[in-house]
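Box 4.2: Ligand-aware structure prediction
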Amino acid sequence: MKYVMIPQTDLSVSRLAYGCMRLCGSWNREPITDAERSTAERAIEAALEAGINFFDHADIYCLGKSEIAFSSIWREHPSLRSKIVLQSKCGIRFADDPAPGDPKRYDFSYKHLVGSVEGILQRLGTDYLDILMLHRPDPLMESEEVARAFDELHRSGKVRWFGVSNFSAMQIQLLSHWVDQPIVISQNELSLGHAHLIHEGVLVNQIEGDGARASGLLDYCRLRGIFLQAWSPLGGGRFFQASRTERDARIIDAVELIARNRSVSPEAIMLAWIMRHPAGIQPVIGTGHPDRIRACAQADELELSREEWYELFTVARGDRMP
Ligand SMILES: NC(=O)c1ccc[n+]([C@@H]2O[C@H](COP(=O)([O-])OP(=O)(O)OC[C@H]3O[C@@H](n4cnc5c(N)ncnc54)[C@H](OP(=O)(O)O)[C@@H]3O)[C@@H](O)[C@H]2O)c1
C-alpha cells in the first residue's frame, strides 16, 4: 500500500481509507452481539493487513455502535493508536434526539459539537481524534459557535485537525473565514455511479451541465490544498445488486471487461478510476468482507490508462464526450 501526506498536516495516510459506517451491521439501540463484534474485528484486521491506516467514523454510524466495536482494536494492538489515523464526524441529529418528536436536523452549536466529541472519544476508547469532520452543512451554523467549539477542541488536544463532508466550495470558504484552524479534508460522494464532481468539469457552458453542479468543489479543494475523500466509492454496493438499474449494469459490464483484461477485481477497477484523477482522491471503502477488502486493495497496484479511464467515464456519463 502506498502512503501520501495530507497537505497542511503531519499525517501520512494509505491511498485507501476504511469506512466504518456498516461496521456493526445494525442501526438500533440493542447491545452489540458477539457475531457483530467478531465480524467487525475481522474487517478491521483485514484492513490493517492490507496496509490501510486511515479509519473513518461518525457518531451516528450504527447509532454509536461502530465506534464501540472499533475500540476492541486496542486489546489486540495496544500500541496501534499513534500508527493509525482516526477520523470521526458529528453534527447530524436523528429524530427523537433527545425528546420524542424532535425532528431530524443538523446541529453545529458549541454545546452539541463539544458534547459529541466527548461521546466519540469515550466510544472509541481514545483521548484524541486526528480529524473531526462536520458531517453535513447546517443552514443554522453560526460563526461564533463553530469557532468557539473548534478552539476548545483543538486547545484541549481532543482534536488535531478539522474537515468537512458534503460542503460546497463556498461553504468551506465561509467556514474557513470564521475559524482559526485550517480545513484539511473534504469528503464527498464519488463513484462511477455518482460522479458530479468530475462531470461538471466537462460540462462548462452547456445546458446538459444543469443537473451536474458541484460548483467547482474539486478544483477549489485542489487549489487550497484540501485533501479529497470519496465516500461510497463502489456506489454503496448498488452495482452488485440484482435490482441495479440498466445504467449501473452497463457500468459494471464495462468495469468487468477491464478487470478481466487486467486480471484484477472489479472493485479495484472502480477504485482505480477514482484514484487515477490527479487530485489524489482517497476512496473510503465500506465492505465488511475481508476478501473484498483485499480485492479493493489491488487498486493501489494499478494505474488505468487514459483510454481506460475515458472508456469508463463515457459509460458512466451515458453519452460520448462533448
Ligand atoms: N460523509 C458522508 O456523508 C458519508 C456517507 C456515506 C458513507 N460515508 C463513508 O464512506 C464509507 C464507505 O461507504 P459505503 O459502505 O457506502 O462504500 P462502498 O465501498 O461504496 O460500498 C460498500 C457496500 O458495497 C457492498 N459491496 C462491495 N463490493 C461488493 C461485491 N463485490 N458484491 C456485493 N456487494 C458488494 C458492501 O457489502 P459487503 O459488506 O457485504 O461486502 C457494502 O454494503 C462509509 O463507511 C463511511 O465511512 C460517508
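In the box above, the bound molecule is NAP. The chain has one domain: 3-243+280-286.
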